[in-house]
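Worked problem 6 (solution included).
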Amino acid sequence: MRGKSCFSLSQWGADSIVINTTRKEFFAIPASDKALAWGRFGYLTESNKAGLIVPYLGKYATVELMKLAEQYNGNTLNEASTKADKGVYVYDVADNSRGYTLVKYWFDVDTKSKLEEAAVYFEADMRPSTAAVEKYMNYLGLEYTSMTDPSDGSSIYFSYEEKFVAYVLMNKPEDEAQDFTPNIHFTFSDISGQVPPRTVDVPEPIVDFGAMTLDEALEQY
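Solution. The predicted structure is:
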């Protein structure tokens, strides 16, 4: 891996060996480019082609692994916005040439040790296009649900297989005086029971005219 305090053997097909020389500890993790894998430290190539980065999304991963991932990508801890005692960490993005500003992480409330949410923020005038967002979501296996978050109007995408959610806020509010920070916010949540079904069973039409009354037909539907 890039950086002074960690490296990887994944290019040789071995597990990732991550060493933190500052704390004198190491992690052995299966090498993987899957978005939710603990051993995925770098930004995904395909997402970069879409003009977007994927923050570290190791599901329930430790604070140490998240920090190593951010160091790998050259990002700097924003100490003013970080609230470690609340399990919240904010990083300034090293390369903001495409509009990235911050990456933010939230860990569980009880122990502050398990990654539960992550978000990437953009400059308002450099936010990605609809086409870029759609390509990004498709690559991550997230499907548009047609639902929005009533709190801010974010479009909701959901992975039925991996059970995680992306809230996409890209539309400027009608009130121009309102604060607007475009972002994509990921949460490890199973909202299967809240989203519309992917398929709908439609009953066969009744073609035997005159064989039953209207009330009998309605009972079948």
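Discussion: The chain is about 15% helix and 25% strand.
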